[in-house]
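Shipment paperwork, digital attachment
Item: protein structure file
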Amino acid sequence: MHDLQPITPLGQKKPQVDIHGSVTLTENIETALASFAARMGAETKAKTALKAFIGGTPPAPGHATKGDISAIWMGPDQWMVMAPFASHEDLAQQLITKAKASASVTEQTDGWCRFDLTGQGLADVFERLCPAPVRSWTGGEATRTSIDHLGCFLVCHDPAKITVIGPRSSAGSLHHALLVAMKSAL
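Attachment content:
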């Protein structure tokens, strides 16, 4: 019998937490992810199913919803859905059941890593990382951008809490880029 031990995207047993100045960078392993794309001709039915699942209207371009179960706009009639892993380990299957063939749903949890940055001065940090207009964000914004040549999503919960979702295979590089920017800005 194998004695496998789960590891974080950074290869550790417990999530990494780094503090520099007024900013805390936390590796978050408590989020389930699934992509949700409405099928052609079933857009209204898919949006209705997603609305019921997340408890609100699916976000418009450049936005994310708030709450335990939330969504990020990814493209026309496409969203990334996020939920607590403890209660939604099977998030993709839950969405498939809710959508009833009106959407294509794909499990995304193990393909991505998530880092949460909290504290004052986040706009200064992100100005060194990407062209996203973080300084003007007030909460509820989301965008896809490039950080250190990696395609990432930024989600602004409020000006003092921003989530970065990036490719799990490059978690170490992304973590390093975030730390360097923190040290440079603060």
